[in-house]
Amino acid sequence: MEDIDSLCSAFLWSGSPNDSSKAKVSWTEVCKPFKEGGLGIRSIADVSKVFSLKLIWRLLSESHSLWVDWMKKYILRNESFWDVRDTGLGSWVWRKLLKLRHLAKEFVPIEVHNGQSARFWTDLWHPRGRLIEIAGETDTQKLGIDRAALISDVRTADGVWRFRRCRDRQMREIINMIENHQMEVNHHAPDVVMWRKNETEYCRQFFTAETWQRIRIHGGLKEWSEVVWFQFLKEWSKVVWFQLRVPRFAFISWLAIRNRLSTGERTGAWGQPQGCLFCGEPNETRDHLFFACPYTYTLWLEVVGTLLGRPPDPDWESTLELLTTHSYGRLEYLLVRLVFQTAIYIIWRERNYRKHLKKPKLPSQLARIVDKTVRNRITSTGYATKPRLRGLMQV
Questions:
Q1: For residue range 307-363, what is the model confidence (pLDDT) as tens digits?
Q2: How far is it, in rounded angstroms, from Cα 365 to Cα 248?
Q3: Exposure on the CB side of residue 254, measured as CA atoms within 13 A
Q4: Domain annotation covers residue 21
Q5: Do both 258 and 369 map to the same domain?
Q6: 1 part of a folded domain
């Protein structure tokens, strides 16, 4: 799976799956959601892991499946999934499922009712985890309970636990832990394998999106919560990803915000220094191109006009902060972001044209190109027939 991800990364940056030397942003960052500063692409490795967890859930939840029945008869052979060893039987998928058991333990508690399918020692029915891992293999007999015993073998119909008297301190602590765990006794309801949807909620079905959210780069953390997730958010993401964005404009803007365009400052580190092709500034940086350069600032003044709600600032950070935090009307915000992205794209394209000795254009010429491009994009939406976009051209 990692090899496939590597091919995808190479293709994104070079157009060929065989050239992995041109990546501007790591694949880990690319695979983050839009709101966290990525491109919203899902890693093949993470997706594969999610669907492998779904197979584990099917296997444990007694789902009516020919595959589950076959696996239980020929591979598990009445053993617990948590204890079965890799004996060479089964496919590579099965061996992958076995390797994911440590992760699956965080998701599949058993809700005990009649106790006739949940195993006392080896299943995940107690909040502390599997009792066999707490007590140890050699101490199971101290309570007089067989390793393969079910909960119904240890608990009476009245919900009373039957333990052998034991003076061992650790065993006494385990007994207290079990007796203090409140469980519903319902002899007419079977035990149910649950799936962890979020920090506090468990359900009787598998949730693909929520599971992926927990296991990806920050995932698998027991302390994961919405508060933790908020720390990963990038406020500038809404400047890049919005309803009217043009994909190639958004992509170049995304690279610009992350400062990953191949400006003179960056190529200089590779031994290829490049000055500003618009004004001759020796050090061509992202902040200089957008919009500290007199040429690009002249263009920016002409195309943005009064859309920002205040005089345009040549400082990149100030401009981005304004677009991120200022309160705009809905249509105004759509338009100002579209103009911003189009200006970045056209400036970057003109810069590359000049680098390859094409005929340069004046700022006024580029301004007309930006204006025409924005108008064409708005027209392509059929804005006049859409109530939420009506009036966009008049902003």
A1: 998 999 999 999 999 999 999 999 999 999 999 999 999 999 999 999 998 889 999
A2: 21
A3: 26
A4: no
A5: yes
A6: no
195/165 Cα distance (integer angstroms): 35
Residue 89 and residue 95: Cα distance in Å, rounded?
Answer: 9
> Alpha-carbon distance 215 to 232, whole Å?
15
Residue with structure tokens 């099917």? 58
- Domain membership of residue 275 (yes or no) is yes
pLDDT score for 253:
96
Q: What is the mean pLDDT of the chain?
A: 88
Residues 279 and 168 in one domain: no
CA distances from 260 to 243, 252, 286 (A): 24, 9, 9
Give me the pLDDT at residue 217, please. Answer: 59
User: What is the rounded distance in angstroms from the CA atom of residue 261 to the CA atom of residue 244?
Assistant: 23
375/258 same-domain check: yes
Domain count, the chain: 3
Examine the pLDDT at 102 and tell me if it is beyond 60: yes
Per the structure, the complete domain to which residue 126 belongs is given by 110-179
Q: Whole-angstrom Cα distance, residue 116 to residue 133?
A: 21
**Per-residue pLDDT, 232:** 53
Query: What is the residue type of 70?
Result: W
User: Does 17 reside within a domain?
Assistant: no
Whole-Å CA distances, 241 to 9, 40, 284: 21, 10, 27
Which structure tokens are listed for 45? 């490795």
